[in-house]
Amino acid sequence: MAWLMLFVAGIFEVVWAVAMKQSAGFTRLVPTLVTLAGMVVSFVLLSAAMRTIPLGTAYTIWTGIGAVGAFLVGITVLGEQASAMRVIAAVLIVSGLVLMKLSAD
């Protein structure tokens, strides 16, 4: 259950990051509220997952899900550039996440 909470926490990290971008520096109310709510949910779930998953593992996987998720949303939804170097960087992050997960078992 802790791994599921950690995964969902990572998804909410993507939600709040994208909402923060859409908030235009916290000048738009709805995206600002989504940012704050997403942060709360993400942190609560991360905290719960850390009850059983080691700090280094949980935090690395949480930030990795957020980083790669935000990267993918940026490309697919926001029209950001998908250069070869950026894709390679994302693949390396995912590789690190897989290794971190395997080392936690």
Question: How does the major sheet shape up?
Answer: none
Q: Write down how many β-strands occur, each being a DSSP E stretch of 2 or more residues.
A: 0
Query: How many separate structural domains?
Result: 1
Whole-number radius of gyration? 14 Å
C-alpha termini separation? 14 Å
Order of helices and strands: HHHH
Helix content: over 70%
Structural class: mainly alpha
Low-confidence stretches: none
Give the overall silhouette: flat
Beta fraction of the residues? Answer: under 5%
> Could you tell me the mean pLDDT?
94
Total helix count?
A: 4
Subcellular location: Cell membrane
Keywords: Cell membrane, Membrane, Transmembrane, Transmembrane helix, Transport
Transmembrane segments: 27-46, 58-78, 84-104
Pfam families: Multi_Drug_Res
Attribute tags:
single chain; 105 residues; mainly alpha; 4 helices; 81% helix; transmembrane; Small_multidrug_res; Guanidinium exporter; Small_drug/metabolite_transptr
Describe the structure.
It is built from four helices and no strands. By secondary structure, it is mainly alpha-helical. The chain has one domain. Its main location: membrane. Pfam families: Multi_Drug_Res (PF00893).
Please give the structural blueprint.
Elements: H1 2-22, H2 29-49, H3 55-76, H4 84-104
